[in-house]
Amino acid sequence: MKEQRKNAPRTKPALLTRLTGEGRPTVTSALIAVTAFIFVLQWVPGLGIYQHFAYMPTLTVIEPWRMITSVFLHSQGFIFHILLNMYILWIFGQLLERLLGRGRFLALYLVSGFAGSVGVLVLSASNTVVVGASGAIFGLMGAFLVIQRRLGGNSTQLLVLLGINFVIGFIPGLNIAWQAHLGGLLAGAAMGLIFMQTRRFKHLGVQVALIAGLTVLLAVVAGVKVFSYLNG
Known about the structure:
Strand content: under 5%
Number of helices: 11
Mean pLDDT: 86
Largest sheet: none
Order of helices and strands: HHHHHHHHHHH
Structural class: mainly alpha
Radius of gyration: 19 Å
Helix content: 55-70%
């Protein structure tokens, strides 16, 4: 019994865990709160939140930050746009934030959202206007799919969910940017692979370098496309 207690994993007292907030999906809750707050601001006359922060490929040169800010905006004409995205964020966010940690989860969300905008830049018309967290959401699902498969889990239901959501993007009249879905999905899957291959503490430096490299690669792809706009 002494040997078992000696080798048992050390855990923090429940009170300390509650006080420090450890285990709670803090980043997930914060992302949902910020997105909801910005959605409310979109309805305030005169602020022009949509006009100032929505993403359009032709604006990439002069206002590149829109590739990230657009992730926190949603369509005002279709309330289910934000409701569905935030619901999926809550489901997968809780799982991934606890699995990866807050910093890695936030990096996954932002890089996937950026990749979604890169997908729109590369594959859509230059005058396309895009808002929404769909690219980031698909990134979460892509990362979770890779992690689940590498851990030996059953991913059939997730594949069905991904397939349904991806196909919906091609339905005429819905104005859904499948390009953002594809960009976010690929980046999220790549991030999931990085996390799994470098999950040991001694590989932390390699992990950071690979994530930074992926981000730079996305920026280079965006830069090449912008350069073609300028010289086209």
